[in-house]
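Aim 2, interim progress: modelling of the protoporphyrin IX containing FE-bound target.
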Amino acid sequence: VTESDQPRERHTVSRRGLLGIGGAAAGGLVVGGFAGAALTAGESGATVVAEPAIVPFHGAHQAGIATPVQDRLLLAAFDVTSTSKADLAQLFKDWTTAAEAMTAGKPVGGDTVPLAPPDDTGEAAGLSAANLTLTFGVGPSLFDGGGVDRFGLAAAKPDALADLPAFPRDELDPARSGGDICVQACGDDPQVLFHAIRNLTRIGRGVVRGRWVQEGFGRTSSTGSDQVTARNLMGFKDGTANIRAGTKVFEQNVWVPKGDDPSWMRGGSYLVARRIRIRIEVWDRSALQDQEQTIGRVRPSGAPLGRKKEFDEPDFEAKGFDGKPVIPVDSHVALARQDVHKLHILRRGYNFTDGLDERAGQLDAGLFFLAYQRDPRHQFVPLQQRLAENDKLNEYIQHVSSALFAVFPGVRQGGWVGRTLLG
Ligand code: HEM
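Predicted structure of the complex, ligand included:
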């Protein structure tokens, strides 16, 4: 295992570290070189250096998968309008340059001149990089959408990128599903995410057109063991049993390994995105006991039913006084448990709300489920098949969009995202 195979840590330079380097900084002046480090006046009037909050863009894998989950998401799907493979390759080169700048907290483009529109739209000026990660992938339709091989790429299409099957109870909106390309922007500040997607969209004008976007907040998963478990909109801790970066099970289940085809995907991963609406009003009217039996865990602590602490192992064999399993067999965790089924996915989803459903006058909110894996045919698909058939949670949820993307391997300094496919 090389150093670059290790999950990336947040690269932050502490205030003390910066002051130490400057030496003379106590007077308020810090000499630069730390892109994205914002200078602000503290309460005492002394200058405070905010942490630059940069997640490195380069590495064996793209950032935004194994790196610690940030609190905000803006995911954009695009369709390609050009029919030229050269345009597509150039777009990914330009996007790489812009992503390198923005993830380092710098503006995109060059110098501005008064008589032309500025390259950078400006709204992130003065903000830190906010741990921005930009993660790029391509969907099945790029290869053979509508049965047409627009870019001569059909032979390069991975078998693992076969369209997801229709699952029982799916009610998918095609306008919010699919897409030729996806860009997942994650970070600490929604304005930084908006700026990133806006500028990538702008750079892509004439080559791609936006298809759908999804905002998310309050990560519903943790990828590192040092992240506390956040709660989803059902009020339950979400991500307790998620696989953790740096473990063997993670390495084996998330990345496309050397032996898998096609070679352009090695070091990459497959992303499944499902917008899952939660029937909040119905959930809110159900008794706590029903809620806990539906999930299979205790709401306040997150412990498996029958146990005390969040990270206690669930005991699926334990029976109650009535002789029935303490964790109901149709509860979400009993059906989704990964140890027996040997199916592991990395969950990296977010809560969402998109205002009101006008027809019902109820909150349109839920979980924007994101999962990374080595091969969805053996991971997400059988898991979702089982959940869609029997999960007690189905009374309260509705899958309303679906997308699948092949997420490129990481980029080295001087390289560009997508080169393994388009170069
Ligand atoms: C709105 C929809 C969903 C909600 C509210 C939800 C919520 C939860 C909660 C509260 C847990 C227990 C804590 C934890 O280990 O994270 C959990 C576990 C899990 N969920 Fe979901 N989930 C949803 C959809 C899905 C879907 C669509 C899948 C995959 C197809 C999935 C896969 C899993 C897995 C693999 C676990 C861990 C099970 C284990 O090994 O213990 N979930 N989910």
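Residues 288 and 299 are 8 Å apart (CA to CA). The two ends are 27 Å apart (CA to CA).
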